[in-house]
Write a structure and sequence with these properties.
Layout lengths: L3 H15 L4 E6 L12 H4 L7 E5 L2 E5 L4 E5 L5 E5 L9 E7 L4 E5 L6 E5 L7 H4 L12 H7 L7 H5 L10 H11 L12 H20 L40 E5 L2 E5 L6
Helix pairs in contact: 1-7, 4-7, 6-7
This protein binds a DNA duplex (16 and 16 nucleotides) through α6.
Length: about 270
DNA sequence: CGCCAGGCCTGCACGC
DNA sequence: TGCGTGCAGGCCTGGC
């Protein structure tokens, strides 16, 4: 579930609880996530000062003074701050105990998420090194996407979802941004010009900004670090709305598949 | 029961 | 031959 807005909501919620604290302990209840949780975590983390929490794409980076805890929420993960000794549920696979007695807890029913540890620069980790531009950074704009897409035969939606090009945009927000921009998702990326890419870049930024402001999207299991759901799904224009009227023109929203993912769009407003 | 779901790495096939 | 590119499979559980 979690795309960039949900990860950013999580980051903002965690930061004040983690920054300046020391790690008191680590509990791994089920190490079988996307990659096995490294056993050395339990030895390497306790005692470290948490300096801050940042985000790269959909990855959360916890700066642990000489090492980085890299967290990914996969499809169904969520992170919460809880009181000491909170009883774990069935899918609560990982806890970080802090020196004030609180817990950072990962819940992830599908276990597509990840808990990684590195003692070199987190941004050089193999999983992060190849990530594309941050869509909320000042460098991201129409010109940038235009230059990136000249040799791409893939559709614009698949390019938006390609983390090596743009980091953090997943299926929901790719659908929504293309609707906002009035661009048909199947359009070959190389056939879109500079001007339309300017509109698309603005649409991506605005879609992400609005989603963050709404606390992200809660479709089934996402909650923020305080347990609160997001409400952006109430503002969806097309995602999950196949057959329902387009909010602009009233015509039915269409659904197709692209790269084994569902694409929703308005055949009239998106050309 | 089958199918679907917010991610994304890996391996393979293809064309230049 | 090598590289960029583009597919499909796989990892899991839960809900309809």
């Amino acid at each position: 579930m979690p795309e960039l807005p949900e990860v950013e909501i999580t980051r903002r919620g965690l930061e004040p609880h983690l920054t300046g604290r020391r790690v008191a302990g680590v509990t791994v209840r089920n190490p079988n996530l996307r990659w096995p949780v490294a056993p050395e975590l339990s030895a390497r983390l306790p005692g470290r000062l948490v300096r801050g929490v940042s985000r790269r794409g959909k990855y959360l980076l916890v700066d642990c003074s000489g090492g980085w805890l890299i967290l990914h929420l996969g499809m169904s993960g969520s992170l919460r701050i809880l009181p000491a000794a909170s009883p774990p549920g069935k899918h609560d696979h990982f806890d970080l105990a802090l020196d004030d007695g609180t817990l950072l807890r990962l819940r992830d029913p599908r276990r597509f998420g990840a808990v990684l540890w590195t003692e070199t620069d987190a941004l050089r980790h193999p999983l992060l090194a190849g990530l594309g531009i941050e869509p909320l950074s000042p460098e991201f704009g129409g010109d940038w996407i235009y230059r990136q897409t000249r040799a791409r035969t893939a559709s614009i939606k698949q390019v938006l979802m390609d983390g090596r090009v743009v980091a953090g945009v997943g299926n929901i927000y790719a659908n929504e941004a293309l609707f906002r921009a009035g661009i048909r998702p199947q359009t070959p990326a190389r056939r879109i010009g500079r001007k339309r890419y300017g509109i698309l870049a603005d649409a991506v930024r605005e879609t992400l900004r609005l989603a963050i402001a709404a606390g992200g999207s809660t479709l089934r299991d996402f909650v923020g670090s305080d347990g609160a759901p997001g409400y952006f799904q109430q503002q969806y224009g097309v995602y999950g709305r196949a057959g329902l009227p387009c909010p602009h023109c009233g015509r039915p929203i269409a659904e197709v598949r692209q790269g084994q993912r569902s694409t929703c769009y308005c055949p009239r407003c998106q050309t």
